[in-house]
Amino acid sequence: MVHGRNAEATDAAVKRLGDRAAGCVADLADPSAPQILVDACLGAFGQLDGLVNNAAVLDRSTIDDLTIETIDRALAVNLRAPLLLIQAALPHLEHSAAGGTIVNIGSINAYCGAPNLLTYSSSKGALMTTTRNLGDALGGRRVRINQVNVGWTLTEKERTLQRDEGQPEDWIERVPEVFAPRGRILEPQEVAAHVLFWLSDSSAPATGQVYELEQYPVIGRNRISTR
């Protein structure tokens, strides 16, 4: 089941995936959307075996320009929506033949984050605690939940964001080595491969784990180049 806010983009993704895919358009900022999405999945496939919480709001914010709207938007999509999706999906995940799995897409910013990523970092930190809490709470119910804390990734949204903030067209070729020791940042397909591992039985019986998908140690790193 492919979820998106844009009907055209969602339909295009479904067509790329073929006959075994279906789509559902809903805005996860709306608290009714999680149940709509779960019902659509059950209607299309008759069962629900896995859930990937990937949607996120990446608004820029600092303590000086913080607004109630910015806080509410980040928490609504980055924390409330995953909680409500898990709640709606849980009765069906519990009855999955292989045991249901949940993968939350977090961020390395959950540990601190840049000064202008205050609400985003805070919401991802809360999601990380949620993953660990539910990993403990759901273990006896045969539902696994893990989180992938993803580093800087070259998504289409990131390209647009960098362009809107005045970066040159070739900014991706100028990413400082401190952020990309291997010479480039992550690609979406690389993230997808890791998510599939945590979604599949190959990662069993691990649950309540937070996996850092980054090309350097996140904690305790000396950021002075060795070259």
**Count of distinct strands:** 6
- Largest sheet strand order: 3-4-5-6
Give the % helix: 40-55%
What is the overall pLDDT average? 93
The main β sheet shows up as:
4 strands, parallel
String of helices and strands: EHEHEHEHEHHE
Strand content: 5-15%
Q: Radius of gyration, Cα only, in angstroms?
A: 18 Å
Give the end-to-end Cα distance, rounded to a whole number of Å: 46 Å
Number of contiguous helices: 6
Q: Can you summarize this structure?
A:
The protein is an alpha/beta fold.
Give the tags.
single chain, alpha/beta, 4-stranded parallel β-sheet, two-stranded parallel sheet, globular
Protein described:
With 227 residues, this protein is an alpha/beta fold. It is 40% helix and 13% strand. It has 6 helices and 6 strands. It has helices at 7-17, 33-45, 68-93, 118-137, 156-164, 188-199; strands spanning 2-4, 23-25, 50-53, 100-107, 143-150, 210-213. The protein has a 4-stranded parallel sheet, with helices on both faces. The protein has a two-stranded parallel ribbon with strand order 1-2. Helix 3 links the parallel strand 3 and strand 4. Helix 2 runs parallel beside helix 3 and helix 3 (68-93) runs parallel beside helix 4 (118-137). The termini are far apart.
List the helices and strands and how they pair.
Elements lengths: L1 E3 L2 H11 L5 E3 L7 H13 L4 E4 L14 H26 L6 E8 L10 H20 L5 E8 L5 H9 L23 H12 L10 E4 L14
Parallel strand pairs: 1-2, 3-4, 4-5, 5-6
Helix pairs in contact: 2-3, 3-4
